[in-house]
């Protein structure tokens, strides 16, 4: 089973969904805001891809943090922030074939599903 994780109103999520559908890939979509975020999923996913790869530093949610929070970010702080504010998780996270992929790139998806 392929699962796409993210937030439904995100343009990158929309592009990833469109790619999956146009390539006839069956998937399930998990919206952090509507479906919730399981702390154990967050920990397990971070163990596979690393918190640095998961943390969305480009988004407005991260930019709203204090300079002290940004300067002192470590694994524990990042996981706590991502759990509290799921918009801080890079989107999408694709889980398929026991592997995780962060972000959307059509060429990478083509290789994953080749």
Strand content: 5-15%
How far apart, in Å, are the first and last alpha carbons?
Answer: 16 Å
Q: Mind describing the biggest β-sheet?
A: 4 strands, mixed
The whole-number mean of residue pLDDT values reads 95
pLDDT < 50 stretches:
none
What is the C-alpha radius of gyration, as a whole number of Å? 14 Å
Instruction: State the order of secondary-structure elements, H for helix, E for strand.
Output: EHEHHHHHHEEH
Q: Helix/strand-derived class?
A: alpha+beta
Question: Could you give the order of strands across the largest sheet?
Answer: 2-1-3-4
- Percentage of helical residues? 40-55%
General form: globular
Summarize the structure.
The chain is of the alpha+beta class and 114 residues long.
How would you describe the overall organization of this protein?
The protein contains 8 helices and 4 strands. Strand 3 and strand 4 (99-102) form a beta hairpin. It is globular. It has a 4-stranded mixed beta sheet with strand order 2-1-3-4, with helices on both faces. With 114 residues, it is of the alpha+beta class. The two termini are 16 Å apart. It is 50% helix and 14% strand. The mean pLDDT is 95. It has helices spanning 11-22, 32-35, 39-49, 51-54, 60-63, 67-71, 75-84, 106-112, and strands at residues 3-6, 28-31, 93-96, 99-102.
Topology of this structure?
Elements: E1 3-6, H1 11-22, E2 28-31, H2 32-35, H3 39-49, H4 51-54, H5 60-63, H6 67-71, H7 75-84, E3 93-96, E4 99-102, H8 106-112
Parallel strand pairs: 1-2
Antiparallel strand pairs: 1-3, 3-4
């Amino acid at each position: 089973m392929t699962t796409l994780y993210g937030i439904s109103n995100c343009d990158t999520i929309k592009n990833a969904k469109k790619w999956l559908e146009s390539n006839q890939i069956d998937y399930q979509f998990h919206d952090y805001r509507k479906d919730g975020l399981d702390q154990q999923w967050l920990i397990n996913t971070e163990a596979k891809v690393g918190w640095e790869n998961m943390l969305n530093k480009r988004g407005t949610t991260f930019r709203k943090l204090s300079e002290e929070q940004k300067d002192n970010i470590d694994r524990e702080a990042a996981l706590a922030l991502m759990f509290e504010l799921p918009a801080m998780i890079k989107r999408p996270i694709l889980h398929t074939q026991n592997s995780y992929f962060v972000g959307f790139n059509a060429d990478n998806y083509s290789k994953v599903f080749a």
